[in-house]
C-alpha cells in the first residue's frame, strides 16, 4: 500500500491529535489555551521532492514524509496571553518545536476576537460618552466593524490593539441585513485587547475641501446625523431595495451532459486536460496549488496569493491607521465563503471543503470553500485558409479554482485558471462594499468620493503579492533560473539596422535575490527557465514567462509607517531564494506591524544566490532556487457606481509557456461543433436571416489552386 | 410612417443604384470600371444628431437625412487606372461629389487583386530563373501570399506594387489545406501592379546569429530545401495531423431555454439590458457600434477599431517592407469570416450579414460576419454580511458583438462587450499562423524564433488604434470634455499629510487636440465627462473613464519610414477634434504610404480646440468635440507554442462609467440561482462530499446581533 500523500488536506482527527499534544505539553492548572489556528506544516522541499519524483515515475516513495501540524495558540497565565506556535508530528504524537514571539509580534485576529469587540466597546463609559455628541434617526442602532490597528507612531509601544469603525443600522425595516455601511459615525474607538478595555475614542474630521485635517471642536449640542432621510437607496438585499429587480435577464444554463472533463481524486488531486495538481487550502491564503504538472512535466511547485495591503489615502488622522493586510491580519482562508451552486459558480462544479479550528482546538469544517469547474473562454485558436475557405477553429477552455473571502465590508474573489494552451492565469476580483467615513452633507472632498449622502468613500489602494515557486520541468535547484527579457529599439545605422525597423531582445540572468519594476516601455518579461533543458525546435531553454503588470505602486511616503510595513508594495517584482516556510510577502506578523520583518525586503537583503557564478557566490546568503513574487494593484478612487456594492474590478496575471512545448499545446483540441447552440431570429426580415443557417464555406476545388 | 433610419445597413439595391450612377457618369467607350468598394457614406454629425434626438424623444425627425453611398473605383482608360471616389445620393440618384487622388495614394488591395499575383509571378521569366537556385522535396509546389509593399526608400517613387511571400506546399498528402507556411522560400518577388509585370526578385538572407544581413552569394548549385523531412508536425487540419485529437474534452453546452435576453430589430438595432445601439459594418473596419445608449442616455456616438500596424523587427532587407496596415491595406470587414454556430460562438446567437461589392459593382452578401450573443462572466458583485452569513451574489453578464478577420496567414478576433455594470470592453485576440521566413537548418537568430525546422518566426509588433467618439449624456459639442486624471503621492508633511499615507488626485482638462502616453506610475486615467451635467450624489461631472494600456509602443527608429507611416503607434492616446469622415488613425491611404497623411498626427497638428478658453481659441483649428484614440499593442516575439497556429493573445480595453450613474447600475440584477448547475462528485469519500449540497448558510438570529 502506498504511503499517504504528504500534500493531503488536513483531517479532522489530525486537528484533535495536534491539539491534544499541545494541551498535554502546554496546558495545566491556572493555564488556559486559546487556539488560533491549526493547519498543516507543509513538508520541507528536500523531503517532498523525492516523494514527488517517485510518485511521478510510478515508484514507491522510499521514505515517508513526516506529517507535521502547526498549532498557533495563546497560552494564558494570570490573564496574560503569550502567543505560541508548536509543530506537532501527529504520526509520532510529539511536539517537534515550539516558538514564542516578542511582544510586538501580533498574529492575525480571529473571528472569536472580532466578536468580542462590539459588546465591550458599547458597554464602556467613554464610548457611551462619545456617542452623546450626536443623535441618530429613530430606530437606528450602532454596529461596529472591528479593524486591525495600523499606523503606529514611531514612539507608540502598545499591546494588542483593535479599532472599531462605527456605523448606524436602520432597524425600522426589521431586517438585520439592512446596510449599515451607509451610515458611518464620526468616531473610532480603540481597544486594548489584552486588558479588554477601551483606551480612547478617536473623533473624526467630517469636513470637505478646505476644511481642517482634524475634527471640529465639540459644540456641546448633539449633532443630528443622517438628516437626509434617504433610508432605502443604499440597500442591496432585494427585499429592502427601493426598486424592483430586473425581470428580463433570461437564464444562461451551462451544462455538461456527458459529464465534466476533470477528475478529482482523493487528497484533492485534480486531473484535467493534461494538467495534474493538488489543491491545498490554508487559513491564511485560502486555496493554493501544489505540484502543478502538465503532461507529466512539473511546472509549478507551489503558487499562491500571499498578501495584500490596503492603505487608505485620506491623510486626516486617525485614517492613517486604516491599512489592512488581509492575509496576515485576518486570513483569506478563514474568511472564505461557503460557495453556492448556481450562484458563485455555474455549470458542473466540484466543491472542496476545509477544516479549521475552534478556539478550543476542535476541528470545524468550512464547507464548500473552493469551487472547481471548467469553462469556455471563447475562440482558442483559429485559422482560415483564404484560398480554400477552410476554417479550423477550437475553443479556449479553462479550469477554474475559485474561492471568495469576506473581510468585513469587502470581498475578494480569487481564481487560479489553467487553460488548454498551457497557461496559468491568476485572477483577482475586488467587490463588496467600499469603506466609507462620515462627511458633512453637502460637502465634497479630495480624499474620496461622496457615494451616498453623508458617506465619503475614501481613496485607497489594493496591492497584491502573488508567490510563484516554479519547477520548470525539474524539481532540482540546479535547473531553474530567472531571466529578465526586454525588447529594445536599435537606432538606425548602416551596419545592423539599415532601414530602422530592426529591434533586439536583451536578456539578463537574475543571479541573486533582487527586486525590479515592470517596464512596459521595454516589454520587460520575466522568463522562468530550465537552464539544463533545451527546446528541441528553438534550441532555447524550456520555460514559462510572465509580464509584470505595471500597475501603480504604493503611494504612501517612503518614510511612512505604511511604506515600512509594505515594502513588497513598492516594486512589481521580487526574486528571493527559496526557504521552507517563507510564504509571506510582508512577513509573518503583519498585524500592528511597524515594519515587514521577514518579508520580501528582508529576504532580498540576505543575498541568496541562484547560479554558480564566482562574482555572486561571495555574497552573504545561500544557494537557493528562485521564488518569484509578482506584485500588482488597483488604485481605487471610488466611483458612485461602486455603491452600495461595487461591480467586480478584475485583474489577471498570465503565466504562459515560452518554448516549454514543441508546438501549440492546444493543437490537439477537438474541432467539434457544439450541437446545442441555436440561432436567435430577428424580428424583421430586413436582416439577413436567410443566411443564418448552413451557409456553406466557400471551398475551392483543388484543381483551382495555382500550382507550379 | 417614420423615415428610414440613417444608420440602416447597406442594402443590395443601394449598391446597384450607386453603381449605375457611377457607370452613367464615368463609364463610356474605351473605359472600364473596376469597382473596389461600395459602402455607406455615414451621415454628417450635424444631420444625424437631430435625427437621433428626435428618435430618442419619441418624435418624428423633422428632416430626412440624405442617403449617400460611397463608390471607390478605378476608371481605366488606355490601360491606365485612375482611382476615383464618388459619393452618390441614392435617393436623388445623383452623384454629389467625385474625388480623384494623387498617384502616391494607394488604396487597399482587393481579393481580386490578390488572386492575380500568383499566376503572373509564377509565369514570369525572372521568377522561373530565381527558383532554379533551390530544389524542393518531391511533390512540393510553390504557393505565394501577396503582401502590400511597405518600406519605400526615400528616393523610391513607384506605382502600385505588390510583393509575394513564397512557400512550398506539400501535395503528396493530397490535401489542399496542407500548411504551406511551414516551408518558406528564400525569395520575395515584387510586381508592378499597374503593368502586371514582375519587377525583380529579392533574395533573402537565411543565416543565423553573426551572419550577414544580406543574402549569401549564389553558389551555382541549387540548394536543397527542407532536408529535415518533417512533413507532418506543422499540420493543423485534423486529417493531416500526426497525433490524434483529444477525446476527453466533454462538451460544455450554453443554452437559454427561456430565450435570449436581447432583441435585434430591423436596421441592426439591438436592445439588451438597458443598452440600445446599432451595429454597423464597413469593409475597412468590420463591425462598428453607433449611438450606444444606456437607459435612454447616450454614451457613445460611434466606437470602432480604426487601424493596426504590424511592423516586423528583422533588420535584414527586404524585411523592412513587411509592415502591414491591416485595416487600410486590406480591410477587416472585407476579410471577415463566415462565423459558424457552435464553433466561433456558443449559445443563443444572432448573426448579421453584410453587403460588399464585386469588381463589377454588383452586391455580394457576406453571410454571418458578426455574431451577437450574451454570456456569463463570473461573479458580478457580491457581499456577505459576516454577522448574519447572508450572501447576496449576482453574475456579471456581457453582450458580445464579435467578428473575425483573416489576413493571409493571420487572424484577429475583435469584440465589443457591453456589460450589466454599464461597462464597455474592446477586446482583440490575435491568432492564426505567425509569419515565418527561411533560416538555415541548425541555426538560431536574434531576429525571431525557430518554430519549425527551417522556419524563423520573426519578431514583430501589433499596434492597434481604437476610435472612441463619445456622447456622454449628450450629443452637444458644448458638453463633452476630456480630462486626464492622475493619482500622485503627497510628500509627508505636518500640514497636509502628517503621517504620509495621504495621496491626491490631479486633473487636467484637455483643451485642444493633443497626444499623451499611458503613465501607470501615476494611474493616468482618461475621463470623458459631460461638463454640464453633475452627478447628484457626488456633485462631479457625469462621465466614463478608460485607463490607457501602457503597452510597448512602436520600436522602429523615429526617422524610419515605418515610424513615419504610423505616428499613431508612437503614443498611447490621441485626442482630436471631430470632423466628419475622419476615421483613420494612420490616414486614409496606408497602402505603400510614405507617411500617414491625414492620420491622428495631422489631426492634432491643425490645432482643433474643445473648450471656450481664450488662451486656446487663438489656435489655428476649429471648435470641435473631442474624439479619443486609444492605442495599445503586443510586442510579439514568437514562442514555439505559437506554432503552427497560435493560441489567442488577448487584450482588453475597458471603458467604464465614472459617476455616470447614481449607484451600481447592476444593483438590480436578479439573484436567481441557476437551476441547471450540478455537483461533480469526487471518486473518494475522503473529500467532503457530504457537505456539497444544501449546506445552510450560518444565519444568525436577529436577537443575537448586538444592539445598543
From TrEMBL, chains A, B:
<dbReference type="InterPro" id="IPR016182">
    <property type="entry name" value="Cu_amine_oxidase_N-reg"/>
</dbReference>
<dbReference type="InterPro" id="IPR015798">
    <property type="entry name" value="Cu_amine_oxidase_C"/>
</dbReference>
<feature type="active site" description="Schiff-base intermediate with substrate; via topaquinone">
    <location>
        <position position="410"/>
    </location>
</feature>
<dbReference type="GO" id="GO:0009308">
    <property type="term" value="P:amine metabolic process"/>
</dbReference>
<protein>
    <recommendedName>
        <fullName>Amine oxidase</fullName>
        <ecNumber>1.4.3.-</ecNumber>
    </recommendedName>
</protein>
<keyword id="KW-0186">Copper</keyword>
<dbReference type="GO" id="GO:0008131">
    <property type="term" value="F:primary methylamine oxidase activity"/>
</dbReference>
<keyword id="KW-0801">TPQ</keyword>
<comment type="subunit">
    <text>Homodimer.</text>
</comment>
<dbReference type="InterPro" id="IPR036460">
    <property type="entry name" value="Cu_amine_oxidase_C_sf"/>
</dbReference>
<dbReference type="InterPro" id="IPR000269">
    <property type="entry name" value="Cu_amine_oxidase"/>
</dbReference>
<feature type="domain" description="Copper amine oxidase catalytic">
    <location>
        <begin position="252"/>
        <end position="667"/>
    </location>
</feature>
<dbReference type="GO" id="GO:0048038">
    <property type="term" value="F:quinone binding"/>
</dbReference>
<feature type="active site" description="Proton acceptor">
    <location>
        <position position="326"/>
    </location>
</feature>
<comment type="similarity">
    <text>Belongs to the copper/topaquinone oxidase family.</text>
</comment>
<feature type="modified residue" description="2',4',5'-topaquinone">
    <location>
        <position position="410"/>
    </location>
</feature>
<keyword id="KW-0560">Oxidoreductase</keyword>
<dbReference type="Pfam" id="PF01179">
    <property type="entry name" value="Cu_amine_oxid"/>
</dbReference>
<dbReference type="GO" id="GO:0005507">
    <property type="term" value="F:copper ion binding"/>
</dbReference>
<keyword id="KW-1015">Disulfide bond</keyword>
<keyword id="KW-0479">Metal-binding</keyword>
Amino acid at each position: 500500500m502506498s504511503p499517504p500523500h504528504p500534500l493531503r488536506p488536513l483531517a479532522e482527527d489530525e486537528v484533535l491529535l495536534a491539539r491534544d499534544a499541545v494541551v498535554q505539553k502546554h496546558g495545566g492548572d491556572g493555564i488556559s489555551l486559546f487556539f488560533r489556528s491549526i493547519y498543516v506544516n507543509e513538508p520541507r522541499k528536500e523531503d517532498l521532492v523525492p516523494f514527488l519524483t517517485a510518485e511521478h515515475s510510478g515508484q514507491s516513495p522510499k521514505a515517508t514524509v513526516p506529517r507535521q501540524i502547526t498549532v498557533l495558540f495563546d497560552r494564558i497565565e494570570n490573564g496574560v496571553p503569550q502567543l505560541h506556535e508548536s509543530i506537532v508530528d501527529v504520526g509520532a504524537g510529539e511536539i517537534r518545536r515550539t516558538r514564542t514571539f516578542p511582544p510586538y509580534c501580533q498574529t492575525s485576529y480571529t473571528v472569536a476576537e472580532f466578536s468580542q469587540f462590539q459588546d465591550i466597546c458599547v458597554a464602556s463609559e467613554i464610548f457611551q460618552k462619545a456617542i452623546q455628541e450626536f443623535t441618530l434617526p429613530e430606530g437606528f442602532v450602532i454596529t461596529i466593524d472591528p479593524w486591525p490597528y495600523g499606523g503606529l507612531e514611531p514612539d507608540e509601544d502598545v499591546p494588542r490593539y483593535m479599532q472599531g469603525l462605527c456605523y448606524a443600522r436602520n432597524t425600522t425595516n426589521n431586517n438585520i441585513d439592512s446596510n449599515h455601511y451607509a451610515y458611518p459615525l464620526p468616531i473610532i474607538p480603540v481597544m486594548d485587547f489584552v486588558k479588554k478595555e477601551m483606551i480612547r475614542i478617536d473623533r473624526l474630521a467630517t469636513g470637505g475641501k478646505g476644511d481642517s485635517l482634524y475634527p471640529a471642536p465639540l459644540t456641546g449640542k448633539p449633532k443630528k446625523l443622517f438628516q437626509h432621510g434617504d433610508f432605502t437607496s443604499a440597500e442591496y438585499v432585494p427585499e429592502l431595495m427601493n426598486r424592483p429587480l430586473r425581470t428580463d435577464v433570461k437564464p444562461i444554463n451551462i451544462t455538461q451532459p456527458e459529464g465534466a472533463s476533470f477528475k478529482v481524486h482523493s487528497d484533492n488531486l485534480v486531473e484535467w486536460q493534461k494538467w495534474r495538481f493538488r489543491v491545498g487550502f490554508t487559513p491564511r491564503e485560502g486555496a493554493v496549488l501544489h505540484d502543478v504538472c502538465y503532461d507529466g512535466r512539473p511546472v509549478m511547485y507551489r503558487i499562491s496569493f500571499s498578501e495584500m495591503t490596503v492603505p487608505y489615502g485620506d491623510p486626516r488622522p486617525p485614517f492613517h491607521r486604516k491599512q489592512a493586510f488581509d492575509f496576515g491580519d485576518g486570513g483569506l482562508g478563514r474568511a472564505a465563503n461557503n460557495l453556492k451552486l448556481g450562484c458563485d459558480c455555474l455549470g458542473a462544479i466540484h466543491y472542496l471543503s476545509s477544516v479549521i479550528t475552534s478556539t478550543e482546538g476542535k476541528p470545524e469544517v468550512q464547507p464548500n470553500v473552493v469551487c472547481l469547474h471548467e469553462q469556455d473562454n471563447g475562440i482558442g485558436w483559429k485559422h482560415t485558409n483564404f484560398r480554400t475557405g477552410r476554417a479550423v477553429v477550437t475553443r479556449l477552455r479553462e479550469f477554474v479554482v475559485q474561492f471568495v473571502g469576506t473581510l468585513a465590508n469587502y470581498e475578494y474573489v480569487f481564481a487560479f485558471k489553467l487553460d488548454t494552451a498551457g497557461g496559468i492565469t491568476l485572477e483577482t476580483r475586488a467587490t463588496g462594499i467600499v469603506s466609507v467615513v462620515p462627511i458633512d452633507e453637502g460637502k465634497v472632498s479630495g480624499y474620496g468620493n461622496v457615494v451616498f449622502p453623508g458617506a465619503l468613500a475614501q481613496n485607497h489602494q489594493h496591492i497584491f503579492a502573488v508567490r510563484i515557486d516554479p519547477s520548470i520541468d525539474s524539481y532540482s535547484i540546479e535547473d531553474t533560473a530567472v531571466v529578465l527579457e526586454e525588447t529594445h529599439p536599435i537606432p538606425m545605422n548602416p551596419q545592423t539596422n539599415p532601414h530602422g525597423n530592426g529591434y533586439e531582445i536583451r536578456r539578463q540572468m537574475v543571479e541573486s535575490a533582487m527586486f525590479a519594476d515592470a517596464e512596459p516601455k521595454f516589454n520587460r518579461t520575466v522568463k522562468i527557465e530550465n537552464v539544463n533543458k533545451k527546446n528541441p525546435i528553438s534550441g532555447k531553454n524550456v520555460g514559462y514567462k510572465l509580464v509584470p503588470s505595471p500597475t501603480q505602486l504604493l503611494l504612501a511616503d517612503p518614510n511612512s509607517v505604511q511604506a515600512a510595513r509594505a515594502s513588497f508594495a513598492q516594486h512589481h517584482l521580487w526574486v528571493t531564494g527559496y526557504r521552507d516556510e517563507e510564504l509571506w510577502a510582508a512577513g509573518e506578523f503583519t498585524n500592528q506591524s511597524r515594519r515587514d520583518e521577514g518579508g520580501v525586503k528582508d529576504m532580498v537583503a540576505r543575498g541568496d544566490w541562484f547560479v554558480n557564478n564566482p562574482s555572486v557566490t561571495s555574497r552573504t546568503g545561500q544557494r537557493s532556487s528562485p521564488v518569484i513574487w509578482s506584485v500588482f494593484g488597483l488604485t481605487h478612487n471610488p466611483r458612485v457606481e461602486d455603491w452600495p456594492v461595487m461591480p467586480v474590478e478584475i485583474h489577471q496575471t498570465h503565466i504562459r509557456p515560452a518554448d516549454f512545448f514543441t508546438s501549440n499545446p492546444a493543437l490537439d483540441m477537438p474541432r467539434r461543433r457544439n450541437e446545442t447552440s441555436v440561432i436567435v431570429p430577428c424580428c424583421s426580415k430586413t436582416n439577413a436571416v436567410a443566411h443564418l443557417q448552413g451557409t456553406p464555406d466557400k471551398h475551392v476545388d483543388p484543381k483551382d489552386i495555382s500550382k507550379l
